[in-house]
Amino acid sequence: MADFPALRISLYSALAIFSIVLLGLAGARIHYTTHLSPDDPLNHGSDFYDPIVAELIATSSLAILWSWFIIHCIHKRHENRFISTFLGEFIGLFVLWLMYLVGAAIATTFWGNLAFCQVFIQCRTLTALVAFAWMNFIIMTFIFIVDIAFVVANGGLREPLHGRWDPRASHYGGTNRTSTRPNSY
Hints:
Layout: H1 4-34, H2 51-76, H3 86-111, H4 121-154
Helix pairs in contact: 1-2, 1-4, 2-3, 3-4
Protein name: MARVEL domain-containing protein
Keywords: Membrane, Transmembrane, Transmembrane helix
Transmembrane segments: 12-32, 52-74, 86-111, 131-153
């Protein structure tokens, strides 16, 4: 699986890019709802904000930082005990995955069918916001599947997450090394 690091970097790059787009869409929604004109029919012109949009802003921000950290760890072969192991990645990825699931599900409940108002920019913004929340959730699910397949195939749950470890050169290599060389050397 020589392309495993490249595949993971590509998936995390897509996650970072889509999270940046989602952050922009959520920011646009927050700006709109907190700066309503008095004659706006939405909420009778009273400013408000959607708590789920704030949650998506927080989730997107964390996903961007997490993606950059994981890309750095994979690219530089960073080994920093727990946080840069597959187990640490699974824990961080699960938290973000769960946050995206909750955010996308609640946003879909509120704005899942806005076909009646697609002539308005705010309805199109909300539709795109829901779509990008689900796309981020799907990308993270795919990252989970790829990582689990690699860990199961190689037994590397506590190994460095860059996926290119050499037990003889890594801090993670066990002390019970068996050599295939004969003892006559």
